[in-house]
Amino acid sequence: MSNLNGWGLTARLISKHFGALGDRVSEAIANFDPETATEADRDRLADSLRQTAQKLAAARSSFQKEADDVVKLRQLIATDEQAAGTLGDRLAAGKISEATITLFCDELEANKARMPQELQEEADARQYMDELQTIVDALSKQLADFDSAAKKAMQALASARAQQDLQNLRAERQAQLAGLAGMRGNSSALNALTRRAQAISNEAAGMKIVTDIGQRPYEQAAELEAIRKSVSQPAIANESALARLQRLSGQQPAQLAASAETATLALGKA
Q1: What single-letter DSSP state applies at residue 156?
Q2: CA of 88: how far to CAs of 11, 114, 196, in Å?
Q3: How far apart are CA 169 and CA 162, in angstroms?
């Protein structure tokens, strides 16, 4: 007996704790995959409705049979009651035996005695059928309400997911913009590139300064040459023979004029 009690306790513990575990697992699955869980709930509700509807169909058939039995029994009793009025005359005329009359009366009394039971069976069948009809109607309404609520819930879920996707896209865009801003202000690569460009620019500026310094004597010499050409070339082009002679000999104009006069006098004496 103790072993049986132990097994009974074990069975209750298993039923209690694993039943609760099953509820928690079902809840976890519903939270993980609500669409499938909703379909499973609807399938269970639809299956319950289908099974109840089958029972209702059987109850209707049973009720119809009981109702037909009552109608047949009533018709039989009514017919026998009508026949009972003529059986006395037939018995007096010797056309029927008392044994037959006795059997007829026994059957009529038995049928009348059976009528309350048949009526009760008909009433019970009707009550069972009506209760099943009420359950079927309730399950049908529950299934319709479930479908309506499930449709609204699925629409709400789809809308929520759309909003979630939108917010994710907005967050992703903000992250991209923040990344670009960070690259402009804090990117080591961009900073190094900027410093490199500045260094090259400074180097080029320094080279230009050095080149300009080296180029300055050449530019000054060219300027002097240009000045000489601009001053000397017109004078040379228009100078007289005496002026040219003065320039080439390095003599002053007065000395050159006296020398010329002496040479003229000498030529005259000769």
Answers
A1: H
A2: 72, 25, 138
A3: 10
The rounded distance, in Å, linking the Cα atoms of 228 and 232 is 6
CA gap 196, 189 in Å, rounded: 10
For 47-115, give the secondary structure using H, E and C.
HHHHHHHHHHHHHHHHHHHHHHHHHHHHHHHHHHHHHHHHHHHHHHCCCCCHHHHHHHHHHHHHHHHHH
Q: How far is CA 65 from CA 58, 123, 124, in A?
A: 11, 12, 12
Largest CA-CA distance found in the chain, in angstroms, rounded: 227
Backbone φ, ψ for residue 184 (5° rounding): -70, -40
* pLDDT over 70 (residue 163): yes
Here the tokens at position 234 are 């017109």
**Which region among 100-114, 149-163, 217-231 has the lowest average model confidence (pLDDT)?**
217-231
Is pLDDT at 113 greater than 80 in this prediction?
Answer: yes
pLDDT digits (tens, 9 = 90+) for 164-196: 898 999 888 888 887 666 555 556 766 777 788
The pTM assigned to this predicted structure is 0.51
CA atoms within 13 A on the CB side of 8: 5
User: 103: exposed, middle or buried (C-beta count within 10 Å: 0-12, 13-18, 19+)?
Assistant: exposed
Cβ atoms within 10 Å, residue 40: 14
